[in-house]
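User: Run a structure prediction on this.
Assistant: Running it now.
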Amino acid sequence: MSVLTALGVLLLVLVVVDLGLTVGIVRRLRGDLAPLRPRTNPERGFRVSLDRDGAEWPAGAAAMLSGHALVAFVAPGCPGCERLRRQIDTAGPPDVPFFVVGDPALGDPAAVLDHLRSWPATAHLVAPRSVDTLDSFGHPDTYPTLVLLSDGVVAASGHRLDDVAESLAKLHARRLIRDAAH
């Protein structure tokens, strides 16, 4: 009976040690145990501010915040991003300035920038830090993420051109009406 008790205690100790090692490995793989903010698309009405990120955006990024702009967060090798690029190639560039933003966490920033330059955009930017931690854009959740801005405020967002098409059409119609009135 005492042998069975000793084996039971030994087995319990081994299980606890194994559990401790597993937790340690998971901690090391995750980097830290602090939960990240939930990743979501920026909601309509969200005010974008490049100052929130604590890192400097590249030159030209501030132009996204004046007037209207379409911002696309894309990644090399992303099938949805390639579909979006084909849609834009077919439809032609949007009627508003078009900014393509890459994630520096997805590889060498120079290689990411080279990939972005293949897009028909007004500006090609590499974000100052990982896109899912960008406070300025409310933590975009997947690729591609499209954000339509009007004077720095989110007018629409989504993952496909169709998600922002209605808002883009309204902007285009307003521009046509304004131009016809002059």
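The longest helix spans residues 2-30.
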